[in-house]
Fold L-ascorbate metabolism protein UlaG (Beta-lactamase superfamily).
Amino acid sequence: MSRRQVLIGSAAVAVAGAGLPGAPAFASGRSGVSLRWLGVAGWELLFDGRRVLIDPYLSRLPVFDKEGKFIADYPLSVRKELVDQHLGARPELVLATHGHYDHLLEIPYVVEKHGSRVIGAETHRHLLTAQGVPPDNVIVASSGEHLDFHGFTVQVFRSLHSQFGAYGYFAPGTLTAPPPPPATISDLVEGGSLAYMVTVRDFSVLFMSGTANYVEREIAGLRPDVLVLGMSGHANVYDYTARALRATRAKLLVPSHHDDMVTQLDDPALPLRGNPGAAAELTETARRIGLAARVLDPEILRWYEL
Ligand SMILES: [Zn+2]
């Protein structure tokens, strides 16, 4: 058994020190909500025996050639055995932040296997139905929805994709009808980006986790208990981290989308955590703006009781 497998089996709280002196210990395990990082921008929430997935992506397609160049026509394929192994319990809901392959790829298989419902924008619905997802399984959202799942709620917020070197990004585009079945990673277009807040009783987790950009006015004043924040590709987004923290003032900060995306889950070389610079940036930013938040730098596939 590997070290990682041992850790996967343990449910524990591990919070990297952060925030202001005297800040209350937050990850107390008292909320009844547990969170697990699936790698890349994938997350799983577990509460009251119910499960919600966000952008599950365990296949980690090796989309870079030997020279490190991105292969834009890399064929789509799901590592179903990894999904079976790690996502064996039924999620009742899957939240899609946008249409890109590293967010949407595995959702059709999860729906086929478990019959889960999905929330996404219109383009995401077309991409999913083109891959065999029944239209009735997809709840189309745009922004402002506050959906009651009777025991928890989901709020949907319009968001933005990360903007890279030339202020653009890979595979933009929107769809108004189902396309031919997607074959390569370029076929899974962004189709708009969304953020989600899941609230269980009075405990809320805000997932601005799929991209490293957002609409500040959409999220201002939300005050979630936990903010899961995309932490790569924001060099050209003005004051990215501080604006997100000031707007939401979460008590616990968790980095997302901060690993190499390609090292396989069953590769012993897979680091336990993502880029340590992501948690460090959250910690430093919270300190700089005087926010008494703690930072959780999660181990991949490990459950944390919030
Ligand atoms: Zn993307």
Observations:
- DSSP finds eight helices and 14 strands in the chain.
